[in-house]
Amino acid sequence: MTEPTATSPAPGAGTSGLRAVVLSGGLNFEREVSLSSGTQVWEELARAGVDAEIRDADADLLPGLAASPADAVFIALHGATGEDGALRAVLDLAGVPYVGSPAAACRLAWDKPAAKSVVRAAGATTPDWVALPHSTFRELGAGAVLDLMVARLGLPLMVKPASGGSALGVQKVSNVEELPAAMVSCFAYGDTVMVERYIEGIELAISVVDLGEGPQALPAVEIAPASGVFDYTARYTPGLTEYHVPARVSDDVAGRAAALAVQVHEALGLADLSRTDAIVSADGEVHFLEVNVSPGLTETSMFPMAVEAAGYELGEVLAGLLAGRAVTVR
C-alpha cells in the first residue's frame, strides 16, 4: 500500500460548500443493496460537511439534475444500472460530473470474460475459463458442451453470470451431476455464463482509491465464508462470513495483491475507486477473479473496512473524490 504522507492532501480537502447528489436504487436484482450503500454514503457525506441528497435512477433524475445542478454525483448504484457504463454515458451527455470510472471502462469491467482477457494480457494470473451464451447450449446440445468444459477445466468449477455483481447466480460445482442445474440457475441472471476453474485458497478483496496522487491499494480484506463460497447469501447474511483486515497473509503476498489491484485498475482504465477480488492459492500465487467499479459501501461492505484500516475516515474519502470531480468543471 502507498502510505499517506505529510504532504498528501487531506482526503476531504476542498469540500466546503460542495453540493452532491447520491444515486442509489435502480431497477435490478441489486436494488436493496444499492439503497443501503446510498444511505450509508449520504450519512458519511453529511458527517464530512457535504450538502448531499439521494436520488433514484429513474425518469425524474435528468430533469431534477437540470433544475437543481449538483457539483458532482456519487454513483452508489450496483448491478447493471451502476456498473455497465450506460448511466455514466448519459451523465456524460448531460455534462454532469460524477465520481468513478468512465463509461467505456465500466463496460469492459462489467464483462467478466473481457476483463479477464485484458488483465491476463497485462501479465496478471487469472483462472482459466470458458464463457458461452445460452444459445450455444441450445443449438449444439448442452450435454456435449458441458462434457467439453469439464474435460478442459476439470473439477471443481465456479459457475457465474458473465456480468453482474453481489455474487448473484454464483455457484461452486464439485461434480458433473451438479453442473446442469447450476447452469440453469445461472442463466436466470443473464444470457451468458462464465465457467471458471476453481482455485482453492484465501479470498481477498483489495480496494483501490485515487485521492489525487494516483491509484493506491488499501489494506486487503480477507474473506472467510463459513460455507467456503462467498455467494450472495454469505455476503449479506450476518454471521455467515468472517472478515479479517488486514488480511492474514505474508507481507510479500500482501504486496503482490496490492500491486495486482493497481495493475487491474490501470489496465482497464478505471478511475477514482475500484475493488479487485482475488484468490491466493497454496503456492502463494495471487489470482485475479474480477473487479467491481461500484464497490459496496454499506456498513458491512469491504471498501469501508479497507478505508478504516488505512487510517482514513470514509466520509472524508468520499467527499474528497466528489471534490476532485467537481473541480474539473468549476
Task: Give me the secondary-structure topology.
Blueprint (H helix, E strand, L loop, with lengths): L18 E6 L6 H17 L3 E6 L4 H7 L4 E4 L4 H4 L2 H9 L3 E2 L3 H8 L1 H10 L7 E5 H7 L1 H12 L3 E5 L9 E3 L5 H9 L4 E6 L3 E10 L4 E3 L3 E5 L6 H5 L4 E4 L6 H17 L5 E9 L4 E7 L9 H8 L4 H14 L3
Parallel strand pairs: 1-2, 1-3, 3-4
Antiparallel strand pairs: 5-8, 6-7, 6-8, 9-10, 9-11, 9-13, 11-12, 13-14
Shape: globular
> How many domains make up the coordinates?
3
Largest sheet: 6 strands, antiparallel
| Secondary structure category | alpha+beta
The radius of gyration is 20 Å
Oligomeric state of the chains present here? single chain
Count of alpha/pi helices: 13
CATH class of the largest domain: Alpha Beta
The stretches of 5 or more residues where confidence is low (pLDDT under 50) are 1-10
Order of helix and strand elements from N to C terminus: EHEHEHHEHHEHHEEHEEEEHEHEEHH
Task: Briefly summarize what is shown.
The chain is built from 13 helices and 14 strands.
Would you write up a description of this structure?
This protein is an alpha+beta fold. It has three domains: 19-99 and 319-328, 3-Layer(aba) Sandwich (Rossmann fold), CATH 3.40.50; 107-125 and 200-293, ATP-grasp fold, B domain (D-amino Acid Aminotransferase, Chain A, domain 1, 2-Layer Sandwich), CATH 3.30.470; 129-197, ATP-grasp fold, A domain (Dna Ligase, domain 1, 2-Layer Sandwich), CATH 3.30.1490. It is built from 13 helices and 14 strands. Strands 9, 10, 11, 12, 13 and 14 form a six-stranded antiparallel sheet that branches. A four-stranded parallel sheet has the order 2-1-3-4, covered by helices on one side. Strand 9 (201-210) and strand 10 (215-217) form a beta hairpin. The longest helix has 17 residues, at 31-47. The radius of gyration is 20 Å and the shape is globular. It catalyses: 2 D-alanine + ATP = D-alanyl-D-alanine + ADP + phosphate + H(+).
